[in-house]
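TASK: fixed-backbone design
INPUT:
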């Protein structure tokens, strides 16, 4: 369902997701080349022109080559975002909309990075912020959220209980600023696709490998390159490879069984807490995007994640386990599936978040 830009809804009344209109088509002439970072794409985002951007300097992250699995890989260093994760792209655009709509209190549920990001941008915008987190969230992420002034509410039990707590808070007056449901968040993350297109000299990568839990990164990249293709600026969407931890891999299970929807799984403990999502709400969209790109979904063990994290550090890249999931997954791909084109892997979160 299409909603206007100034909607105060966070979810369709049917219980599902929605989109925004009008959403500008990609037009390279609308890039503000005098700007650095995310806001060079301001005219391409579904935002009211009167809304002043809420920014901490997000976007514009470097693309750095390294050797991995016998070939050159381009690493998109999203760990250099203001709060240390790619979620800042989505939070910047979402909080810009919230402030434009005069919303004064936001609530989010998060395993860490999304909550820290929302807390930072809410502080920048002067919004009150509550974050519901699972009780097992690591201490550095809790400290980061609290430092920004957020009210951090720890919820015992499974990850999805935090979402239930956030929904309850939204029913009592706070705005549910969900990185999963709200299209403004996905719009911000789509800018990574635009940056990659510019950094690769107006070409798309051959393959994009990303960690997948709720799947907002993979889906946003798919939508971003889809807009570039509709504008006749790239021929094909990159092959999308989603990587999950075997301990919690509902998308992998659905893909392997050739299903179009996802069945919830019972998660086991994993160090990659950012992808430990037992029942992703956008599961059917993610599966459709992967198949439309001729991509795949793979799952990796805890040992593979730790080995990849250590190997990245020996190359100078200190990332959290969730970010290492993608490189661990690359080791499972055949050389034929990588072809000879550019392979891009976003490093989604900084290692200091989990020390």
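OUTPUT:
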């Amino acid at each position: 369902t299409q909603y206007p830009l100034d909607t105060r809804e966070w979810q369709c009344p049917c219980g599902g997701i929605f989109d925004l209109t009008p959403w500008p088509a990609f037009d390279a002439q609308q890039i503000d080349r005098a700007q650095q970072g995310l806001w060079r794409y301001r005219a391409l985002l579904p935002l009211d022109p009167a809304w002043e951007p809420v920014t901490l300097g997000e976007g514009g992250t470097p693309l750095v080559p390294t050797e991995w699995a016998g070939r050159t890989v381009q690493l998109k260093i999203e760990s250099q975002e203001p709060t240390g994760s790619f979620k800042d792209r989505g939070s910047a655009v979402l909080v810009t909309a919230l402030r434009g709509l005069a919303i004064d209190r936001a609530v989010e549920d998060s395993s860490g990075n999304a909550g820290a990001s929302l807390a930072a941008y809410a502080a920048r915008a002067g919004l009150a912020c509550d974050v519901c987190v699972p009780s097992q969230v690591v201490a550095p992420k809790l400290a980061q959220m609290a430092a920004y002034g957020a009210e951090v509410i720890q919820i015992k039990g499974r990850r999805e209980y935090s979402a239930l707590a956030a929904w309850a808070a939204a029913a009592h007056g706070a705005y549910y600023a969900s990185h999963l449901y709200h299209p403004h968040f996905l719009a911000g993350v789509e800018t990574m696709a635009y940056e990659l297109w510019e950094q690769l000299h107006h070409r798309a990568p051959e393959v994009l490998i990303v960690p997948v839990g709720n799947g907002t990164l993979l889906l946003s990249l798919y939508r971003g390159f889809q807009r570039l293709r509709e504008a006749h600026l790239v021929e094909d969407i990159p092959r999308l490879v989603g990587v999950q931890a075997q301990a919690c891999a509902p998308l992998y299970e659905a893909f392997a069984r050739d299903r179009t929807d996802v069945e919830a799984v019972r998660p086991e403990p994993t160090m990659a807490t950012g992808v430990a999502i037992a029942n992703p709400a956008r599961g059917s969209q993610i599966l459709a995007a992967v198949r439309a790109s001729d991509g795949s979904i793979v799952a990796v063990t805890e040992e593979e994640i730790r080995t990849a994290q250590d190997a990245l550090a020996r190359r100078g890249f200190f990332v959290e386990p969730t970010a290492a999931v993608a490189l661990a997954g690359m080791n499972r791909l055949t050389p034929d599936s990588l072809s000879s084109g550019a392979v891009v892997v976003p490093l989604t979160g900084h290692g200091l978040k989990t020390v």
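COMMENT: The chain has eleven helices and twelve strands.
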